[in-house]
Specification:
376 residues, four-stranded mixed β-sheet, 53% helix, 10 strands, alpha+beta, 11 helices
Length: 376
């Protein structure tokens, strides 16, 4: 089997599971706002958490584009469930980039197989887009470190068994950033209430509190002071994942709206016969296909270790998420009043799409990164 055939096979598996078993439950997952454990188990059983992770560490060993395809197909069916894949990818990334063999064997393997969930603790009340502004401290105590701090908006918090936290080990804004692995159940690690969100409501988000959390220096990822550089590389590899997620949501909205206007009649003919509706459908499709090309171009550059990965990753995330918001809004408009009620899925697609413009770096930050890459 060649690479293209392998990618298509993985996409087909993901699509079959997503459309056959995740999509029928998506509205319920959204309404109940609970972790979709059945869907998560299904993804794990089919190896979809670790598609791009080497087989040595529990993965499938496929390429990065196959990973993006899985995210897209699952997001198209149920955005909430896709967040568990994207968050797992975010948590696995620092292990893939900077983890030792022992750390990969102990933690990455469990994440790649879906045996456990993982979370990446970055955001704080005063440090969101500015990751170099984190206040959570890690103070050395012999061969251990003592962690103290407060994280917010942490996806899967309380549900995950493995956490990677961004901490400060010195006052230097960038060279003072260090990453630590903390397991659930460690004394001093506690969680706040579940946030009630606009969209991706089946994805659990909580505050995290670290009060004198003691971890061994062996739990340090990449060495003391290496955290900021690792983080930048992590984001370069995970922003296209958000782009693929946004793409899947947008495609779902487009396809539903397209089929709807073929059936809905006004003024004696179906809506698809009106020129403005036809132009809207054309524009939606152009945007989505352009986003698709950019997302998978970014993925290919990651696969090739291209020097322009930061530029293309930010463009893919920024453009695809803006397109998802635009297309889902247009889908609601094409359905008219029906688009605004929960009997139809497009209002959910619109709510789910919004977060893709915000997390993994707001699109305002992405534009600054893009400009810096082009002008500096």
């Amino acid at each position: 089997m060649n690479l293209i055939e392998e990618r298509q096979l993985i996409r087909d598996v993901a699509r079959k599971i997503a459309q056959g078993q995740l999509a029928p439950q998506a509205a319920k997952v959204d309404k109940e706002g609970k972790t979709p454990w059945a869907g998560i188990k299904l993804l794990a059983e089919n190896g979809l958490f670790g598609v791009h992770v080497p087989e040595e560490y529990g993965g499938v060993g496929a390429d990065y584009l196959s990973h993006l395809a899985v995210i897209e197909e699952v997001a198209k069916a149920c955005a909430s469930t896709s967040v568990y894949l994207s968050t797992q990818a975010l948590t696995m990334a620092p292990f893939l980039i900077a983890g030792t063999h022992d750390q990969k064997s102990e933690y990455l393997t469990k994440l790649a197989t879906g045996e456990v969930l993982g979370s990446f603790g970055i955001t704080e009340p005063q440090a969101g887009s500015d990751v170099s502004g984190v206040k959570t401290t890690a103070r050395r105590d012999g061969k251990d470190f003592i962690l103290n701090g407060h994280k917010i908006f942490i996806t899967n918090a309380g549900e995950s068994e493995i956490y990677v936290f961004v901490t400060r080990t010195s006052e230097d804004r960038t060279k003072g950033i260090t990453l630590f692995i903390v397991e659930k159940g460690t004394e001093g690690l506690t969680f706040g209430k579940k946030e009630e969100k606009m969209g991706i409501r089946g994805s659990v988000t909580r505050e995290v509190f670290l009060e004198n959390v003691r971890v061994s220096e062996k739990n340090m990822l990449g060495g003391e002071g290496a955290g900021f550089k690792i983080l930048m590389n992590v984001f370069n590899e995970t922003r296209p994942v958000v782009g693929a997620q946004a793409l899947g949501i947008g495609v779902a909205a487009f396809e539903f709206a397209r089929d709807y206007i073929k059936e809905r009649s006004q003024f004696g003919k179906t809506i698809d016969q009106f020129q403005l509706s036809r132009a809207k459908i054309a524009d939606m499709f152009i945007q989505l296909e352009t986003a698709r090309l950019l997302v998978y171009e970014a993925g290919q550059r990651i696969e090739n270790h291209d020097e322009q990965v930061p530029l293309y990753s930010s463009m893919a995330k920024c453009y695809a998420s803006d397109v998802a918001m635009s297309v889902t809004t247009d889908a609601v408009q094409l359905l008219g009043g029906n688009g605004y009620i929960q009997d139809y899925p497009v209002e959910r697609y619109m709510r789910d799409a919004k977060i893709t413009q915000i997390y993994e770096g707001t699109n305002q930050i992405q534009r600054l990164i893009i400009a810096n890459e082009l002008l500096n």
